[in-house]
Design a protein that fits this description.
With about 350 residues, the chain is α/β, with parallel strands linked by helices. Helix content is about 35%, strand content about 15%. It binds nicotinamide-adenine-dinucleotide and uridine-5'-diphosphate (UDP).
């Protein structure tokens, strides 16, 4: 029997051994940045993957290298409308994630998170599937305590421009736990902290993709505010590994569990690192700070360490190296296309 063993994991931890190949897994938001990496890992492990997406912020190019796999089905659908599928595991990753993306259509964002959660939980209730939710560090808002443990209730402005996302994700968590308590649905709520890597959209507006693309093109590096605000950046492979470990846990392990890298740095320092790593001639410019921008963010990952035996393995420099290589290749291929 094939076991689901990740590439670089400790070979004596057979963490996935209760997950036999051949499960039908639904990945909502499967054409997005994280969803495409997740779908790829699930296919590698021998599972059937249904990648459901409305392609609002995701792209077919993220999964086109997987299209020849007969175990992949791609379904264009908006999670705000009910759907019926026979699956045993569901990952709910469908939601815009970058601030410019989620603020472009705030009502749509809120409804994607709330109605999307309701529809996925109804599906899980009907099928008995386990449902894994991609929640976010934004449930902590602009936190008063650092690092943030899962027990912290957060500091969110409910009427600000980030609320459509923050409150959408918070309401989704409420629905998840109510469906668990009321109907016994097997839920796993993972709170994702800033994650980066190949297949982020070059123009999605998040800090890592912005800085790398700007640096590679010797354009100004745009810092919003003074750059003293901090984030803790997790490389995509680590994040996916954390979610897979969570998904196979028994039904009494519901979370919430923070999944992120606790190495915290100021945004200004990230700019300097990216400039140095790309040998860029870019200048740093300061633009107005984003409204309600969290000033500090760092996950307390004690729970993930204890319950999932997980911690990130890829440090910032190595993760950035891989991401820079990805964007460098992408920009070069765009230049070739322009020249033709
Ligand atoms: P992304 O924008 O690349 O992916 C989101 C995907 O969901 C896209 O493919 C998009 O087309 C799809 N989608 C959006 N609305 C939909 C709808 N109504 N119906 C169907 N599909 C829809 O973003 P990502 O970074 O891959 O984020 C994936 C999930 O992880 C999101 O739920 C996000 O909130 C969460 N998350 C991500 C981060 C991060 O740092 N990347 C941090 C916290 C939480
Ligand atoms: N940011 C920045 N310049 C950019 C993009 C983002 O200074 O070009 C800042 C942003 O204001 C925030 C941090 O970087 O303080 C992280 O922003 P991102 O959009 O990546 O994620 P989030 O705010 O959701 O953590």
């Amino acid at each position: 029997m094939r076991k689901f063993v990740p590439d670089d994991s400790d070979s004596n931890i057979n963490i996935y051994s209760n997950w036999k190949p051949g499960l039908r897994v639904l990945v909502n938001g499967g054409a997005g940045f994280l969803g495409s990496h997740l779908s790829e890992r699930l296919l590698q492990a021998g599972h059937e993957v249904i990648c459901l997406d409305d392609f609002s912020t995701g792209r077919l190019t993220n999964i086109e290298h997987l299209m020849s796999n007969s175990r992949l089905t791609v379904m264009e659908h908006d999670v705000r409308h009910p759907y019926d599928l026979d699956v045993s595991i569901i990952f709910n990753f469908a939601s815009p994630a970058s601030p410019p993306d989620y603020q472009r259509d705030p009502v749509g964002t809120l409804l994607t998170n709330v109605i999307g959660a309701l529809n996925v939980l109804e599906l899980a209730r009907r099928t008995g599937a386990t449902v894994v939710q991609s929640s976010t560090s934004e449930v902590y808002g602009d936190p008063h305590i650092n690092p943030q443990p899962e027990s912290y209730f957060g500091n969110v402005n409910p009427i600000g421009p980030r609320a459509c996302y923050d409150e959408g994700k918070r309401s989704a968590e409420t629905l998840f736990f109510d469906y668990h308590r009321s109907f016994g649905v097997d839920i796993k709520v993972g709170r994702i902290f800033n994650t980066y890597g190949p297949r982020m959209r070059r123009d999605d507006g998040r800090v890592v993709s912005n800085f790398i693309v700007q640096a590679l093109q010797n354009q100004d590096i745009t810092i919003y505010g003074d750059g003293k605000q901090t984030r803790s950046f997790c490389y995509v492979d680590d994040l996916i590994e954390g979610f897979l470990r969570f998904a196979v846990k028994s039904p009494d392990c519901c979370g919430p569990i923070n999944i992120g890298n606790p190495a915290e740095i100021p945004v200004r320092q990230l700019a300097d690192i990216v400039i140095a790593m790309t040998n860029s001639k870019s200048r740093v410019v300061h633009l107005p700070a984003a409204v309600d921008d969290p000033q500090q963010r760092r996950p307390d990952i004690s729970r993930a360490r204890q319950e999932l035996k997980w911690q990130p393995r890829v440090n910032l420099e190595r993760g950035l190296e891989k991401t820079i290589r990805y964007f460098d290749a992408l920009l070069s291929s765009e230049k070739v296309v322009e020249a033709v």
